[in-house]
Amino acid sequence: MTSRAAEKNLRYRASGLAAFIVLAALGFAVPRQTSTAYGLASPEPQRRAQGAQSGASRVANRRPRRIDYRKFSHSSVKHREQACDSCHKFPSSNWKLARKVDAAFPDITERPAHASCLNCHRQQFFARERPAPAICSVCHTNSTPRNTARHPFPNPPEAFNLTARARNFVSDFQIFFPHDKHIEIVSGAKPAHESEAGGQLLKASFGRISTTQQKDAQKQEEQKPNESSCAVCHQTYQPQGESEEEYATKSPPDLGEAFWLKKGTFKTTPNHASCFTCHSQESGVLPAPNDCAACHRLAPVLLRPRSDFDPKFAATMGVNDPLILQKWRRRTSGTFRHEWMSHAELSCNACHNVTVMNTLDDETKKVPILSCGVCHVTPTTADGGALNVALDERKAKPDFQCTKCHLTLGKEPTPKSHVDAVERVKPPGGS
After folding, report:
1. What residue spans define the domains of the chain?
2. Residue 332: which residues within 8 A CB-CB, separation 6 or more?
3. Distances from the Cα of 321 to the Cαs of 4, 164, 198, 263, 266, in angstroms?
4. Tens of pLDDT along 375-400?
5. Is the omega angle on the peptide bond into residue 131 within 30 degrees of 0, that is, cis?
6. Which site from 36, 105, 324, 352 is most exposed, i.e. has the minimal number of CB atoms within 10 Å?
């Protein structure tokens, strides 16, 4: 009896355990089935929804883009709001050392002091960054307590252009200069292509151009350069003169007729040394030398003037002169040379019309093709006009590259202005 009772009791326990396992399994399964049956979200979709929500939160709470304080720009919103003298103190403490003793004058010749930057950038100055706060590299070559050397300042340009940093330097500013108020002689005379009333054909000017050039050249020799003369501010840069070497850098022996940059191609541009001759604290002529914004205007951020410049080509020629590179980047004719005999004999106003020139607008500074056309466009191609020849070549071969005046722009489609210039001088019924 005792063994039977024990066996019976064991069966009851086994049955109870089995029932418990079944009920436990149903307890886990029923809620999942019930939630689905009644349209409630199952745990899997809930996790997806939570994940999507957290992603949206990350987008909404995304931190603003981190500013790279190693790069300084006058065009940033906060900097644009500042007056020039809030950072640049006139004159700089080193102005007497920036130029030779006999040529020194009060000027801004150094980067702002720490106090100017600390007004707004105290947090960046004391940032825990190694080896030094990033903002220090804006001015300093190697930011350490023992090395306080600074990057060269763009003014005076005579010293700055001797540094490697000047080669790729692009200023945040454009220079505003009213030519019509400074160059009375040039502003009073119009270019040759505008001298024919009623827009008569250029061929009328073509026959008289040699006489006009001689008179202009003679007039320039007779007149002594003064404040209203172009030559006061613009001289031929690195002229060949009497030298037998005509190229700006050593040319290859097998150059032939290929292009290589020549000396005397560019003209200089005035700087503070010229401007402050009249606009000084002593003279009282406005704008005063400490009124930076009167001449220095922020350039549009997306300003990229079309030019006939190819940096790879310049590197191949070994051209690394900062002034040449700066000038060339804004040129639309890479082959034009001011010192070439026929060009040098012309007066400046034969090509440049300063009455419409706006130094803030590159389009107004370009020499119109009609000015070139006085010499380089003829009634027929047989007469030798360079533009006539180029256009005929382009008609015969669409991929012909115009290399007489251009290096990179010569690959582009022929501008309408060039075609019109040739059409204007064609003889009646000519083709």
Report:
1. 77-150, 173-373
2. 306, 307, 308, 366, 406, 409
3. 114, 9, 45, 12, 12
4. 999 999 999 999 999 999 999 998 99
5. yes
6. 36
